[in-house]
UniProtKB/TrEMBL annotation:
The organism's place on the tree of life at top rank: Eukaryota
InterPro entries linked to this entry: UDP-glycosyltransf_plant, UDP_glucos_trans
MF terms in GO: UDP-glucosyltransferase activity
Protein's name according to its UniProt entry: Anthocyanidin 3-O-glucosyltransferase
Organism per entry: Aegilops tauschii
Upper taxonomic lineage: Eukaryota, Viridiplantae, Streptophyta, Embryophyta, Tracheophyta
Amino acid sequence: MAKAIEATARSSPLHVVVFPWLAFGHMIPYLELSEQLARRGHAVTFVSAPRNLARLRPVPEDLWPRVRLLPLPLPSVDGLPYGAESTADVPPEKVDLLKVAFDGLASPFAGFLAGACAGGEGATGFGKKPDWIFVDFTHHWLPPIAEQHKVRVLAHSAVGAFLTHTGWSSLMESFLFGHPLVMLPLFADQCVTARAMAARAVGLEVPRDERDGSFAGVDVAGTVRRVMAEGEEGKTLARNARAFQEILCNRAKQDEYVDELAEHLLRLQ
């Protein structure tokens, strides 16, 4: 840490915006990262819904000048329980509604970023234009907003792989950026999906104890290393993930699939 603090002293401290997905398994490690950056002299704006921020452990007092918690209230969505702001507040079948509400934060976040980018050239701390935005997943609407203000997003090329439970929404987000997968399925169809993705060589599943389904940290670390390695296995996974990206991002191809579906339905009449 001493070297990092020394490096910060020689250069201008950063202003980083951190915006994790609405799950405590995402928010807690991102808050820890935020505090570690703040200890190195950087300003961090941590964004989430109000109740989530209230339920996270308090930021240490000595970091208050450099860690700002920014609440963005979620819009109401039909079917989403009142006050639900995280995956802990909803059953699995309603997580998609939480994602709909999350997408409703695009406009409020754009307003925040526009204001944050209005600081003058000599501004510091939270008055400084954000240098980076750290995004988690499901933020498909965020890169265009950041691009308008020339703020860099730590997503696509800066990320080497995506650790996922292999829910379909997570997979689509990962492939939109062309990331290979480190897969840790939890329940329902996720295990089958993980095997299908492994068969297509776009990711590797973390090994588990077949007796009780448990896994060890060393196995997670080993799988991450294999996926991100420069060897032939890692290169193959990355190449196949980019091929998936080309398919998903090909608007003409997507339109062609819908046309084929419509034609197939007509033939079945």
